[in-house]
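User: Run a structure prediction on this.
Assistant: Running it now.
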Amino acid sequence: MWLEHTGIGEWIRTDPFGFPLILCAHSIGLAGVVGIVYMLSFRVLGYSRGIPIAVFERIFYIGWVAFILNGISGVLLFISDATHLIVNWTFLLKLILIAAGGVSLWALWNALMGGPERTTPQGVVTPRGKTLAVLCLVFWTGAIVSGRYIAFTMAEAKEKELMGLTGVSAKAPAAAKSGVPQ
């Protein structure tokens, strides 16, 4: 894909510090976003009841900064290997789970703090709020796990691609792959 051949794509892929630096930024963003989501979700589920839910409104800006960092670093990571990522099922699953996590977090916050049709006082936890908190935990945890699993599915895809280029069948016995006569 043409994105990989841009200057930034080449730099991330070939510089010894390119990919690791971008991946570190992505991990820091992940910690900020998911850390806040986990804290809010666990608070809604009954942990640390002494902390008012309204406090989270003040730290959401940290979550937004972390989300922007994740977005930028995620795009850069994608640019470095777009050809493989665009067809990688774990990458696509991660994107779906991030979207679902975002929607569930938005719904949770509206259930807790307002919206025009609000029927309970701000900060009151309802069964719907608890359900949304669990969904947030499931979606964001799934995004983390699928994101981590990308490395394994990418390695497998690249190995299959390399075997195809070298004429060695991916289904060949181990001895054939190693060049040992049978």
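The chain is about 75% helix and 0% strand.
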